[in-house]
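Retro notes (design track)

What went well: tokenization of the new backbones is finally stable.
What didn't: we kept losing track of which sequence belonged to which structure.
Fix going forward: every design gets posted as structure first, then sequence, in one message. First example under the new rule, 496 residues:
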């Protein structure tokens, strides 16, 4: 065996520590390994499967645009294009104190946001961990917990002299689960996602449930708006950077929001809103190409992931680009090569054969490994999977990671391009506020989106600039509350 000595270590996002190794000698462990030439032959096969040509991207963009249009014209479409009842952009003059509550997948976040106008704000916040039990117990109990946390937060801020006693503050509630809304302070939960299963909540108005809990605990807060994190991201980003026209989330899920002319949303024509008014649309675009699977370039690995998922056929776009699945795509390719007798002969591979054992964070580390020997990749395979690798194999794994992640970024660019093209933003250019773990942490993800936009649009693609978005579920939610309160106080669409 080659001698090893642990040298440095890396802490993964999950909190696990990964030792990285120095190697004293290469390829002398007496195990049969794939040769460099053989790995290069395989890589060519995967390059043809995972590479998106500019021509193919433009075809996807056209299909994506049609899907967006369909969602605006009729209810119950694959990409639902949900009107959020957030009317128009913030003026930037919004001021005052607002509460924001965000019921996320792992935490409940409570914020006090002081808007100072001109894109400036201050925020104080607390986070409360949600236990797995709380996510499964009765829905009303879940909202009681939210109310108790909010009350404790307000009380401590009253004691600190930050909030005046007996003041009832307007509250923006960020609830990023599929809801049907027919006005901004109402939302019927269609279905739980992100591991929640709280009974007696699906089919109910979550704002009414939250208000009931607030009243029960005498919390001085008035829920004025229910939004999702993507809509909040759009509004917060525009407040700080008024050239923003689109917001996207690229994380474990994926989504986009933008501002649409009411006259171009046939499905809400009966509401009698001025056709020139603007309303924010929550696209829920992770569902693009679901069920029919006519437009996206799915490989057998993607089909395997889809068919063994808890919602086969659904969220087709999300399954190709979200951080939840990229590691699994790579793991399936590795397992196929193990079955074909190409990789890890004579080694016990049971650990890597466990579904979802290969975290997307590993791909991120593999791509950013700065060493010639690819020591980080030695560390990942030996520490998590007890597998010995050669340099040729490690170079192959790194190239595979790049193929999978690059495809995800280029498909993400197709989604952005569909909105840009539909709204005619290309010539004047626009900013896209982007958030989520892939966008923020995965090396080169943003650059690959920009490269994709230029492949679709040519040089004009440089006019579309993504940047790290503002906090949607805190700041954004508070601004939406401020905008909604001002709109209703002025008697503009008071019933929406």
């Amino acid at each position: 065996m080659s001698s090893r000595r642990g040298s440095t270590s890396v802490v993964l996002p999950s909190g696990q520590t990964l030792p990285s190794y120095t190697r004293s000698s290469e390829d002398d462990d007496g195990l049969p390994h794939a040769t460099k030439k053989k790995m290069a032959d395989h890589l060519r096969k995967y390059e043809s499967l995972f590479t998106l040509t500019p021509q193919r991207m433009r075809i996807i963009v056209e299909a994506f645009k049609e899907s967006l249009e369909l969602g605006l014209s009729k209810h119950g479409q694959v990409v639902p294009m949900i009107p959020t009842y957030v009317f128009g952009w913030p003026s930037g003059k919004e001021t005052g104190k607002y509460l924001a509550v965000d019921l996320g997948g792992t935490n409940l976040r409570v914020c006090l946001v002081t808007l100072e106008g001109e894109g400036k704000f201050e925020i104080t916040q607390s986070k409360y961990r949600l236990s797995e039990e709380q996510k499964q117990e009765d829905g009303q109990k879940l909202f009681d917990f939210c109310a108790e946390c909010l009350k404790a937060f307000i009380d401590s801020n009253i004691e600190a002299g930050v909030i005046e006693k007996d003041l009832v503050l307007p509250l923006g509630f960020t609830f990023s689960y599929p809801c049907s809304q027919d006005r901004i302070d109402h939302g019927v939960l269609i279905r739980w996602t992100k591991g929640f299963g709280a009974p007696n909540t699906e089919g109910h108005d979550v704002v009414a449930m939250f208000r009931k809990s607030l009243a029960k605990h005498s919390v001085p807060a008035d829920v004025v708006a229910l939004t999702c994190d993507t809509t909040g991201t759009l509004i917060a980003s525009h407040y700080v950077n008024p050239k923003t026209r689109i917001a996207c989330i690229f994380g474990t899920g994926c989504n986009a929001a933008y501002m649409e002319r009411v006259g171009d949303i046939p499905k809400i024509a009966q509401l009698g809103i001025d056709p020139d008014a603007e309303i924010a649309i929550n696209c829920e675009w992770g569902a693009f190409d679901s069920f029919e699977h006519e437009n996206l370039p799915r490989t057998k690995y993607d089909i395997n992931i889809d068919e063994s998922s808890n919602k086969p056929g659904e969220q087709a776009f999300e399954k190709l680009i979200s951080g939840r699945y990229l590691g699994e795509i790579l793991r399936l390719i590795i397992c196929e090569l193990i079955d074909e007798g190409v990789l890890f002969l004579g080694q016990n591979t049971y650990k890597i054969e466990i579904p979802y054992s290969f975290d997307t964070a590993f791909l991120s580390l593999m791509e950013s490994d700065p060493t010639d020997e690819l020591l980080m990749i030695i560390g990942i395979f030996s520490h998590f999977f007890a597998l010995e690798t050669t340099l040729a194999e490690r170079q192959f794994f790194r190239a595979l990671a790049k193929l999978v992640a690059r495809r995800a970024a280029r498909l993400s660019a197709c989604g952005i391009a569909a909105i840009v093209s539909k709204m005619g933003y290309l010539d004047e250019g626009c900013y896209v506020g982007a958030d989520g773990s892939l966008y923020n942490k995965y090396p080169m993800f943003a650059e690959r989106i920009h490269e994709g936009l230029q492949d679709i649009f040519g040089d004009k693609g440089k006019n579309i600039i993504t940047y790290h978005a503002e906090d949607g579920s805190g700041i954004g939610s508070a601004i939406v509350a401020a905008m909604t309160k001002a709109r209703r106080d002025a008697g503009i669409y008071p019933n929406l």
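Added context from the reviewer: The longest strand covers residues 107-117.
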